Amino acid sequence: MAEGNGHGFWQRYAGVYDLFMRKDRRAYDALGKMIRAELGGEMDVLELATGTGLVAQRTAGGCRSYLATDYSEKMLARAGRKPWPDTVRLEQADATALKYPDGSFDAVIIANALHIMPDPLAALAQIRRVLKPGGKLIAPTFVRQGGTKEGFLEKPMQGFGFRTWHGWSPAEYEAFLRQDGWRIVRSDLIPARFDIAFLVAEA
Q1: What is the CATH number of the domain that holds 20?
Q2: Overall domain count for the chain
Q3: Closest to 26 (Cα-Cα) out of 194, 200, 199
Q4: How far is CA 58 from the centre of its chain?
Q5: In which region does residue 200 sit, left (phi positive, over 0), alpha (psi from -120 to 50) or beta (all else)?
Q6: Which of 12, 198, 20, 14 is nearest to 111 (CA)?
Q7: Is 184 exposed, middle or buried (0-12, 13-18, 19+ CB in 10 A)?
Q8: What is the pTM of this model?
Q9: Which end of the chain is less crowded, N or C, counting CB atoms within 10 A of the terminal residue's CB?
Q10: DSSP code per residue over 135-152
Q11: Which residues pair with 48 in a beta bridge?
Q12: pLDDT tens sequence for the chain (203 residues)
């Protein structure tokens, strides 16, 4: 599997992930509200890199179906301990090698993950393939103000084996998606411990 930081990293720290992210609760609440505004009751939604379900908990209730995936079994096990509506299913999947048929989903959510993937274009290609015509890519991602990744998450976390492959500023992240052929339909910034660029795009 080609997602960032390696399968072993997420397996190792699944048990403490929610504790580490607790300080970002307000940002995730705001993020959930913004994502829910993009979803509807007749939509089939895929979430990639769901982790322990922090985003899915805040967004999954209002959809016809919500498939929350991650490639770490232990992260999914933590997510599975939480209460979910009947419309939600948890499943292991690699964002860069999806098994789902073309045109399966009305929206794909990939939150705070593209910046830690060595090859985010591989994930975006898969997302484009599984989206229905006119479907939405909802891709909020941690960003920094400036043009380098020096000090962005890496310094405090590099001792744990965490790696950030892309330290985009908000403008750089938006340009990255545009260069891959996506049309940006919504762009916002959520101030947080690590700011989140909230982008919605169509292929």
Answers
A1: 3.40.50.150
A2: 1
A3: 194
A4: 13
A5: beta
A6: 198
A7: middle
A8: 0.83
A9: N
A10: EEEE--EE--SSS--TTS
A11: 110
A12: 344 545 555 454 444 445 445 557 788 899 999 999 999 999 999 999 999 898 999 999 889 999 999 988 888 998 999 999 999 999 999 999 999 999 999 999 999 999 889 899 999 999 999 999 999 999 999 898 654 444 444 444 444 445 566 889 999 999 999 999 999 999 999 998 789 999 999 99
Q: How far apart are CA 199 and CA 141, in angstroms?
A: 8
Q: Say if 135 falls within a structural domain.
A: yes
Per-residue tokens: 172: 């750089």
CA-to-CA distance for 45 and 56, rounded, in angstroms?
10
Residue at 50 is within a domain? yes
Is 32 a domain residue? Answer: yes
* Residue 57 amino acid letter: Q
1 belongs to a structural domain = no
- Residue 124 lies in domain: 6-202
